[in-house]
Amino acid sequence: MAMEIKPLEEPLQNKILLEETFYVLSKKSSTFKVRLTPKGLHLIKDTSDTVKEQLVLLKDIIGCQCLRSKRRTRNCTCQSLPRSDSLQVVEENSSELDDTDCSAYLYIYAYIFQGTSKKRERTIITLRFRSFDKYEDNNKEAQRWRSAIKKLIKEPLNSALLHESVLTTRHRETRRLLVLCNPKSGAGKGKQIFQQKVAPLLMEAEIPYDLHMTKCLNFAREFVRTSNLYQWTGIIAVGGDGIVFEIINGLFERPDWSAIVKSLPIGVVPGGSGNGLARSIAHHSAEPYSPTPTLPATLAAIRGASVPMDLVRVETLSQILFSFLSVGWGLLSDIDIESERLRVLGGTRFTVWSVARLIGLRSYRGKLWYLPCPNPVTKRGEDEEEFGSPVNGGGSTLELSGEVLLETEEGRPRVDSWYSAHSRRSDYFSTGGSSYQSTADSGLGDGDGPRRMYGPAPTLPSLAAPLPDTWRCIEGRFVMVHASYQTHLGEECLMAPEASPNDGRIWLLIVKHGASRSQMLQFMLGLTTGAHAASGNRDPTGNIELVPVSAFRIEPDMRQQGYLTVDGEHVEYGPIQAEIFPELGRVMVP
User: Fold this and answer.
1) How confident is the model at residue 182 (pLDDT cuts 50, 70, 90)?
2) Is residue 237 located within the same domain as residue 360?
3) Helix orientation angle between 219-226 and 241-251, rounded to the nearest 10 degrees
4) What's the rounded Cα separation, in Å, for the pair 589 and 37?
5) Where does 304-372 have alpha helices with state H?
6) What is the domain-level CATH number for residue 558?
7) I want to staple 130 with a disulfide (CB 3.0 to 4.6 A). Which of 62, 103, 222, 311 is the partner?
């Protein structure tokens, strides 16, 4: 029977699990204490005049690693970890280790909010254990700290488990990630993003992964459809919303879709033009997205936290699809599809083509049915904390910046050294038996038979059947109809500010033919901030509406051609209907 883990009470949050004292040789009046509590790592500097403290929150620490000194050489072309000019370190089994130094170094990797800035800064805290004459004894102490930190990162604890689980049980890492990277997403920098932004963090967190580069359309979809996915604990998509669309629909083409979809969370590292899902996750989690949008997504993958995500079953005359972002008809779909010729511009392509489409504003005749639902109650904030690293100690803060090396005098009983620096990493290596494969060596062929879409059974009538009287119908000309179930359609498009990943609502934006160009210009400008959805900015003429629904159907007049999109992907033009299935999938969150 599984034990229920409850949140720690405040006194237990501050319980000291491990503590050490540190000294500064150049300033012997300064004393450092490092304390590990269930809340995080407390760094306390005590001088003759003041006491300064910084708390590195546990949720901001991604991993730690024990290392040894590297033997000094005149020509060093690479290094395994960032260092100061006086410190080089290698792994314990390296042929380059320095046998004359019996110290054990514990590197702790954290991404914290520095000062008042609304962005995370990379910080490395190094504890040097050299109290004993033998490396084995120093390493034993370093490993005790490492095991406790890794255990706290992995599992929430209650008071009964504090000492037994954290201090005496060695942490075992069983996670392994599948990484599917589209090197041609957006401006074509997917591979570079993974190598420079994602792989170093996975290494720091000691999370093994298998990397597969996509080489053709629907590679990711076919891969997840035919592979043994039970060997991985999560899927990371590096690219735009297109590769996420492929992964999700590949999952629903498996006979075991029900077990896989809810047990295998999906994380997305933005590398495309739109990046709507990645931006929505950061927004929902109160994580700053700029200037490093890949960071919150990679941290989410590392921490392994996930939440349920609503998915929408979409039906056309010839296919069934599962959608995580949106269904569109009209203006925004026109911009999305027609701007493909400007893909080299990245996200700027949408701005350029928006101007062109506003000048040549189109409208489309058809019918829209929708099933209204009550105003949603957002789930955001129920168990989230404000971002930032709070400081204990009453207002005097120890800033972790620059490069500070604190040494201890040898021979002191149980004293260590403490070091903090920002990375200047130039080389990378994979940990935990990580591997890379391309299309040629993946074993991916034509699959094991024709595709069939599985998934939950629909509750709607077929497209050819009439709808119940409880549905509302609008007939006429539309500038656009766009259904969204995430906050953002793109990095700069806040379509549904009140949406959350699992609120069970489709936000249906309806823009009728009567909307003027000036109204449309104000509407498009409001999309960057969500001002179009504010109650005080609602269109009094009723030409622009944002309605929460649980299902809808669009029947365009086929005498005029246009575009229909699902998650930004072009689908056949004709009747289309969709319904939401609450919490059907799972998505990784920071």
Assistant:
1) very high
2) no
3) 30
4) 24
5) 331-338, 348-359
6) 2.60.200.40
7) 103
Round to whole Å and give the CA distance between 350 and 4: 48
Q: Report CA 523 to chain centroid distance, whole Å.
A: 29
* Whole-structure pTM value: 0.81
- Cis omega (within 30 of 0) for bond into 308: no
CA distances from 136 to 19, 76, 143, 380, 408 (A): 20, 27, 10, 48, 19
Closest by CA to 463, choosing from 548, 367, 562, is: 367
DSSP string for 176-202:
-EEEEE-TTSTTT-HHHHIIIIIHHHH
Query: Which one, of 61, 54, 59, lies nearest residue 384 by Cα?
Result: 59
Tell me, yes or no, whether 328 and 261 share the same domain. no
Task: Collapse the DSSP code of 409 into the 3-class scheme (helix H, G, I; strand E, B; otherwise coil) and give the result.
Answer: coil
d(CA 197, CA 186): 16
Q: Examine the domain organization and report whether 469 and 502 are in the same domain.
A: yes
The residues, ordered by sequence, that sit 6+ positions from 180 with a Cβ below 8 Å of its Cβ are 212, 214, 220, 223, 224, 235, 236, 237, 238, 239, 243, 247
More confident residue, 575 or 285: 575
Q: What is the pLDDT of residues 67-78, one digit of tens each?
A: 888 887 655 444
416 and 460 inside one domain: no
539 has pLDDT over 70: no
Collapsed DSSP state (helix, strand, coil) of residue 35 = strand
In 155-264, which residue ranges form alpha helices assigned H by DSSP?
A: 190-193, 199-204, 219-226, 241-251, 257-263
User: Same domain, yes or no, for 292 and 145?
Assistant: no
Residue of 35, 28, 65, 32 whose CA lies nearest to 51: 32
In the structure encoding, which two tokens stand for residue 38, read together?
A: 């269930």
Better-scored residue on pLDDT, 69 or 6: 69
Q: Which domain holds residue 114?
A: 10-172+389-421
| pLDDT at residue 326 tops 60 | yes
3-state secondary structure of 403: coil
CA 66, distance to chain mean position in Å, is: 27
Residues 6+ apart with CB under 8 A from 440: none
The SS3 call for residue 18 is strand
Provide the token pair at 66: 């024990």
- From the number of C-beta atoms within 10 Å of its C-beta (0-12, 13-18, 19+), residue 419 rates as buried
Cα–Cα distance measured from residue 224 to residue 222, given in angstroms and rounded to the nearest whole number: 6
The pLDDT value given to residue 97: 82
Inter-residue contact 116 to 397 (CB < 8 Å): no
CATH number of 190's domain: 3.40.50.10330
Predicted local confidence at residue 355, as pLDDT: 76
User: Is the same domain home to 160 and 46?
Assistant: yes
Nearest-5° Cα angle at 69, 63 to 71: 140
Q: Average pLDDT, whole number, for the chain?
A: 80
Residues 138-166 have pLDDT tens digits of 999 999 999 999 999 877 544 334 545 55
DSSP 378: -
CA distances from residue 18 to 21, 40, 121, 201 in whole angstroms, order as listed: 11, 11, 25, 26
